[in-house]
Specification:
This protein has 151 residues and is mainly alpha-helical. The chain has helices at residues 14-45, 52-59, 63-75, 91-113, 118-128, 134-147; strands at 79-81, 87-89. Homodimer.
């Protein structure tokens, strides 16, 4: 096909494409850690210990899966495990849990402001919170401040 009749490419520039995929890969790597620290913080805030059995039940996974993930959290400095006790967050883990919760709440409020029903907004925010960039999150917050301060 001659160049003049070839349709213009819909692909973004190579660097832009690469950066987008890199951002998604990084979000996937951190998603598991973020889900676990957020849940551990929630269980502790609810007045309970964060036990493997409770974490497994809430995440809908097997206890060996939780055990493996907790080893990772401990190794990376997000959590502490004590024999015959539950799991506790380090100060870094507590901060990460707060940051994730704020992102989740911002995304959920934004979806609600768009008219998404509450159940869908809650579930969708659970996935989006891990992938939203700081710039997009700031835009969500600015939108909410102007258009929907009550949400």
């Amino acid at each position: 096909m001659p160049d003049s009749t070839r349709p213009k490419s819909v692909l973004p520039a190579t660097q832009v494409h690469m950066e987008g995929f890199a951002q998604v890969r990084e979000a996937r790597r951190s998603e598991l850690v973020e889900d676990y620290v957020e849940l551990i913080a929630d269980l502790i805030a609810d007045g309970r210990e964060a036990r493997q059995v409770d974490i497994a039940s809430r995440l809908g996974v097997a206890q060996p899966t939780v055990a493996k993930a907790l080893k990772r959290l401990v190794k990376e400095g997000w959590a502490i495990q004590r024999p015959y006790r539950g799991v506790f967050l380090t100060p870094a883990g507590e901060q990460l849990a707060r940051d994730v919760r704020v992102r989740h709440q911002t995304v959920e409020r934004f979806l609600l402001a768009l008219g998404v029903d509450a159940d869908s907004a809650r579930r969708d925010a659970e996935g989006i919170e891990h992938h939203v960039s700081e710039a997009t999150l700031a835009a969500f917050e600015a939108f909410l401040a102007k258009a929907a301060p009550h949400v």
